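dumping this here before i forget
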Amino acid sequence: MTRHEIRPVNVFEHGRFREEVLKHLRQYEEKDAFAEELRRSLFYYYCGKCEWEVIIGPWCDDQNSKEIKVDVYMQIMNNWDIFVDYVWNSKRKPRE
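structure:
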């Protein structure tokens, strides 16, 4: 549904994505393996799906400018290392 608006989105409010992230956090002890599975889940749920993208085009009619699609996956991949650190560091540490 097109609303012609841009609004902030919390990717963890997507129930299935959040469940997969929690599963990966429990399953993987190594950060690199976790990051690969996180990327796959992110791709599956957010890449190229119209409800998670915005089309950006020129304000005025410009013959040389083209519209581009920006989706949630692309935005997170721009800050991938920071995102992975954020999610990995949310992992609960065992009590000593």
